[in-house]
Amino acid sequence: MNGCPPQSNKLLLFLLATLISGCSSPDWLPGVGDKEHKSQAIRSSLVAQPGQPTGLQESWKKSVASRPDDHFFHPVRFSVTSSDLFVATYQGNIVRMSRNEGSILWKKEISESVKGGLAIDDKRVFAGTEDGEMVALSRTNGEELWRQKVSTSVASAPVVSDGKVFFTTLDNRLYALNAETGATLWVNNNAPEMLVIMGAASPTVDQDRLYVGYSSGDLHAVSMANGKLLWSDNLTVVGGRTELDLLQDIDAAVVIDGRDSLTTQRRLLFAVNHQGRLVALSRDTGARIWSNDLSAIRRPLVWNDRLFVADVDGNMRALGMEDGLELWRGNISDGLLTAPVRYKDLILVADNKGRLFSLDPTSGRVLGLDRIGDPIIADPVVAGHDIYLWTNHGNMIHMQMPQ
What is the pLDDT of residue 72? Predict the structure, then answer.
């Protein structure tokens, strides 16, 4: 990989940073010191330099939107169904596309800017706006069904479950709306932060509860029925000296260990914040099982008793789920990585430099690299044999492994 100054990842990353008052050009970022990350196991010294492509082939590439303004991003979460793609754009449009050939079926402008991303149910598409509204459209034709005003800019992509729409706002509120009517059912409040990373993690649904992380570093488990707090934890790391150290956001969605063999006492969830802490908690009580020093803003991948994490310094890491011990680590990028995803027996991860990497999950070795060209901020989506990449130049790319 090309060399870069040690803080360049963080400089790029937090062009993502924003003041809640609306400032989006953090002049304090240059010169920020890089924080040392400590491992609980032997660090891999291999810096991967793959000499071959991933083997994936591009089937089609369709222009959906223009590039955002400098230092801004298209919403990172899009949805894939058996026949369609639904994507939101920075310019405020919701677009339905054909999954097979990428043709645009309808396009609807709902705001000057959409934040976070979108979610769908059987009948509707839901998206939040910078103006502080949640909007529902018809999946069939894009007709607006309802629009609900909330306290401030919608920060996360919504999630839909049990006839309710859940999302967080920039001032650290968790909303539950009626999916059919848009009526507010309940609101869970948390103290707002003046300095936050742009965007927020979507709530994670777990049977009758939600897990939600806030920019304060707080992690809450709440009842889906009424928003009542069931338990809480805080991932804040005390002792930072710079303004970057104040960014304690939990921007990665909580992930759940769904292994059926676990006892009730060992039903785990995993959460990570920007400034240095990855934790495993009991899903039922919130009791902390283990903790590891690690900074990330992307959702970890749970696979085969391991946790795969893309950190803010361009490293891919594998940790044991039961104890948090690091199994391998490889520095693969001088940019900002997406969340890792599983594709067949490989791990795929992209970066904002327009590269797509394939890794061996056992060793962490980079097996292949494709130069896509467009910066990729949104996490790749795997649907069967298909891979979809939503680039920050406004292109949707479909890739497959030849049969």
Answer: 83
